Amino acid sequence: MSNLSERPEKPVVGVPLPHESAALHVTGAALYTDDLVYRTKDVLHAYPVQVMKARGRITGLRTEAALAVPGVVRVLTGADVPGVNDAGMKHDEPLFPDEVMFHGHAVAWVIGETLEAARIGAAAVEVDLDELPSIITLGEAIEAESFHGARPVMATGDIEAGFADSAHVFDGEFQFADQEHFYLETHAALAYIDEAEQVFIQSSTQHPSETQEIVAHVLGLHSHEVTVQCLRMGGGFGGKEMQPHGFAAIAALGAKLTGRPVRVRLTRTQDLTMSGKRHGFHAAWRIGFDTEGRIQALDATLTADGGWSLDLSEPVTARALCHIDNTYWIPNARVAGRIAKTNKVSNTAFRGFGGPQGMLVIEDILGRCAPLLGLDPAELRKRNFYRPGLGQTTPYGQTVTQAERISAVWEQVEADGGLADRKREIAAFNAAHPHTKRGLAITGIKFGISFNLTAFNQAGALVLIYKDGSVLITHGGTEMGQGLHTKMLQVAATTLGIPLSKVRLAPTRTDKVPNTSATAASSGADLNGGAVKNACEQLRERLLQVAASQLGSNASDVRIVEGVARTLGSDQELAWDDLVRTAYFQRVQLSAAGYYRTEGLHWDAKTFRGSPFKYFSYGAAAAEVEVDGFTGAYRIRRVDIVHDVGDSLSPMIDIGQVEGGFVQGAGWLTLEDLRWDTGDGPNRGRLLTQAASTYKLPSFSEMPEEFNVSLMENATEEGAVYGSKAVGEPPLMLAFCVREALRQAAAAFGPSGVSVELGAPATPEAVFWAVQAARQSRAAGEASAADPEIAAGAPAGSSSGHALNGGSASGSAADGRTRAQTEALSGA
Amino acid sequence: MVTPRITVNGKEAPIAPAAPHTTALDYLRERGLTGTKEGCAEGECGACSVLVARPGVNKPTDWVAVNACLVPVAALDGQEVVTSEGLATPGEAGQPSVLHPVQEEMAVRGGSQCGYCTPGFICSMAAEYYRPGRCPKAADGEVHDAAAHTGAGHTDAEHGPNGFDLHALSGNLCRCTGYRPIRDAAYAVGAPADDDVLAHRRELAPPAPAATEYTQDGSSFIRKETLAETLELLRDRPDAVVIAGSTDWGVEVNIRARRADCVVALDRLAELRELRVESGFIEIGAALTLTEIERRLDGGVPLLAELFPQFASRLIRNSATLGGNLGTGSPIGDSPPVLLALEASVVLAHADGEREVPLADYFTGYRQSVRRPGELIRAVRIPLPLARVTAFHKIAKRRFDDISSVAIAFALDIEDGIVRKARIGLGGVAATPIRAYATEAALEGKAWSAETAEAAARVLESEGTPMSDHRASAGYRSAMLGQSLLKLYAETPEAVSA
């Protein structure tokens, strides 16, 4: 067992604890960035001037009318920027653009004494625009070859030989939806200037160090003149990894120019229309199976909708490619990735970071092909699992470790969920109910943990022990609800051997720990936990020396457990507080900076090969759904999950991540439905679903009625802090089983053996069209009963001759994507 | 006129200098009560939920949860509000405060992750915690299963063993937890303790409606004491915006930045808050909230009972009124199809007198009606007896708290297997809510059979002029019309149709 994973006696990690801020949450006392406005004097308010056209060159911008509005203090434009006019890291994201690149692009900001004054001022700013042709849909971008950034190709084996060896070859296309983060707290920043013209920014950001860098380069300052603090976020989900920087820069610029605190807080509609989302993708694919249903070859091109600037689209696309294999061994593959440049918001990180998109492609392929191969979908999936002990590698060349966990979690779900019995019950139910059908599907996941870019896999921490024995920890990670701070408190208490009550945690800020990575890629606890543990170990080693001298023993024989130092084999005790006081008087340093970097990573982006991940997380989930054949409406009756988090640092927190990730994934796959105006009218490019009334996220009605989640037991991960594994992102992808269960329920309305195409999101409307298609297959099947090959839908060994491509893979969704007038009422 | 004042967490304070359009949410936050959050500013997410003391249905006072983002603070003149900060009991000196039972359950069960939606959930959950009859306490002091006691309650996916109705949280969104721990917390709360201050408050008279005339910078919020005074005012101020629950106007103010020189509140007018059952009709006051109607009718009009749980969320239903839903004239409001099927009429009041208009003649165009300037909806009348076969089918993406793509309401009289009378109301398929006259004709006088249903379904599919938008395609909307009749036929028991 490695030093990193080994747990001491009576560890505080592994104890189920509620969120460290739970009492503050429930009483409303927990502070978020914008709550600070009401505790700050003389705050000014910033409001964006959004141009409501998809694309155009700005030929004039007049602010006189805005400045005449009572209460308007200043209008910020590009001319005010003392440093670099850029809000991103790629220098393709001007903070104040000369060219409007998407509908709702902010081109100036109005600063007012009140928000109302700033709003009225913003409406008075006049912008002249030379409109330019725009590209809105992925289809338009592909047609026009409008791409930007890298175009990676991942290749392994001999793809032509693979197809030549295939008994069955299918091809198809699949376009699936983007997703809005819809953190409940919209983007917010509050900036102050101190007496030395230094900038202090409270920001709702997952990446304070990058917010600091961007603010510094916009203001023409050095990083040591800018401090960013994040108390906590009201949700992030990746949406606050890159996107907060520009808003923080606006607040900082306003504060710099007015000398007063400036607040930026987006309304929900501003947030929806100005900030990036999960990338929607288009996939074109061709797959070959042998006679047993084992994948022989995969040829695919994935196109991500990057939006107007690159943002994180390149690493998102890379991660999509790196996850198209999911839990399946694909001996011969060629998968190409490209990023569409469209006149929409710049799409960004979102829980899973491209992984879900890559994995959805293969799961959709298997769900569609199973009936054509005459196999149960669960059986087809199982046959293709990576096998342990064979040294199988991913298509990018990394050995799949712990491959036995793929089937271990799967089998536990089958057993705990009673899947075999329930399949029989469902068959009986379906036979007895002509208008209602149930479906049950199981899917698994494998998700790689670490940032693909090796340099990001490092972290720092600062641990201070005060003379009274109390401990204060700071680390580089941010708290967005995922429970990172709770885990870090547990790690610190465990490493020092003291009760949790002795440890407090200070807010994340850039003047405590420098050069931090984003709290992202599920890596928060792995990286910062390693750093906190390292700092605490330094302190513990010093204190053990002190204790040894007091107890008259060797430091190597001293243990600190539950706040008491003892020597092995002796009754003598030294309480923590006394130990600390003694150390102070002996002039022993009671503070330490901790550091951690993940070992053993390698990645070559050019060849698209290497071992970018420290380890893989595994999980499996089964969902049972019931579909109303009249409307396509459905309920999730039951979900069973077994998920691998290694040895959990904090089981209640981890189960919360699994459940929350699952429901968020189910939202992406079934309900959440971003619609853009793709017509040629005056509102081209406008987001039609720009409010909570039109963009629906899961509510109580989407929660599984029965929801059983368990964590894999005895699952120590040698390569991570206290044997744990990352948990933030992987569970989102467990939700594939919901969409696959809907596919099976829809299929139950038709004859067996028919491939069902289902939109993503599988809204009630999409499910209804899938049901209708299945019913028509019944009619077709009955009509052509004389032709068994057509009736069975079996395309024996043809290289492309199947209707999968002819149908619309996103068919029903596409049907609905026509433009119309909108109405956004709250229902009363 | 007294200076408008509001009591928050037991402390009284003036409403000034807030602008008359200022929401309760912004007012509370300005006062430093930042536990109440803005998530959407249109009554969809519930992060701003607060408790308000209102006239009770079964006790003198009910604690009702509302969206603070929609209600103007001036509308709370003289009222009592409790926020998440006011629920915990402050501890003795040096001690932490004692969490309220719903706060305690939410905290220890992992009901909060990012915590931003949590104060709103707490208030919605507290309102249900205090709902009279939710969780009866027996003489032995033990909390008993409400289902066993009331006979009306039941334990299923949406009702807990403690009588907790999950629909109480239908207007609250959480993006982090996936809801399971929140449901566990909701189903774990017991009955209020004997010394519970808010439980005791229910036994006392509700805050009296204040007559309010609040003006700042030339714009006014006015609440008169009587209907007659209100009608006089509206005759003089035809430009006034009339609100009851403000669930529609609040969205206009927040999202579309509309401002009005004069807003007139109707929600406390006694004349608009009566519910009467006469021999030939039921009359429902236009300013009763949907929750009040739901609880006072208690299933007496089955089609309405089917509508209410599907109408927006509990938070909205606690403020929204039938008068408001008809007054805005939206083609996708959920009550018009039901009221059309019930052959309801509206009683319109004017300073010069009253008139009754059948709802089928009320809508004249997109958000247009026969209602004249200065005229108010006083009540809705539903004729008796009610049709025996009724159903309301709401087609939407989400089951809780969504706006209809299509809504269809049926009210059929079937005798001896023959459809004697059919009334069908439709929403979402035209510029106004409409009656499906052609389908009604295709059903009436016909045997209630699969053939009749199939033929009538084809007629129903062609009613209205559905369009495609972000909610649904035109094709789906049309298909749903036909499917709804087939579903009605499939789900109508033989006993009813025979």
From TrEMBL, chain A:
Region annotated Disordered, chain positions: 780-828
EC number assigned by the record: 1.17.1.4
Domain Aldehyde oxidase/xanthine dehydrogenase a/b hammerhead, residue spans: 27-133
Keywords (A to Z) from UniProt: 2Fe-2S, Iron, Iron-sulfur, Metal-binding, Oxidoreductase
Pfam families: Ald_Xan_dh_C (PF01315), MoCoBD_1 (PF02738), MoCoBD_2 (PF20256)
Cofactors, names only: [2Fe-2S] cluster; Mo-molybdopterin cytosine dinucleotide; Mo-molybdopterin; FAD
EC category name: oxidoreductase
PANTHER family the UniProt entry points to: XANTHINE DEHYDROGENASE
The protein's name in its UniProt record: Xanthine dehydrogenase molybdopterin binding subunit
Species, as recorded: Yinghuangia soli
Gene encoding the protein: xdhB
UniProtKB/TrEMBL annotation, chain B:
InterPro entries: 2Fe-2S-bd, 2Fe-2S-bd_dom_sf, 2Fe-2S_ferredoxin-like_sf, 2Fe-2S_ferredoxin-type, 2Fe2S_fd_BS, Beta-grasp_dom_sf, CO_DH_flav_C, CO_DH_flav_C_dom_sf
Claim: rRNA-binding is one of the keywords in the record: no
Superkingdom field: Bacteria
Domain (FAD-binding PCMH-type): residue spans on this chain: 214-387
Stretches assigned to the 2Fe-2S ferredoxin-type domain: 4-87
Gene3D superfamilies: 3.10.20.30, 3.30.465.10, [2Fe-2S]-binding domain, CO dehydrogenase flavoprotein, C-terminal domain, Uridine Diphospho-n-acetylenolpyruvylglucosamine Reductase, domain 2
One Gene Ontology molecular-function label: oxidoreductase activity
Keywords, ordered alphabetically: FAD, Flavoprotein, Iron, Metal-binding, Oxidoreductase
Coiled coil: none
Keyword Acetylation: no
Database matches in SUPFAM superfamilies: 2Fe-2S ferredoxin-like (SSF54292), CO dehydrogenase flavoprotein C-terminal domain-like (SSF55447), CO dehydrogenase ISP C-domain like (SSF47741), FAD-binding/transporter-associated domain-like (SSF56176)
Protein's name according to its UniProt entry: FAD binding domain-containing protein
Organism: Yinghuangia soli
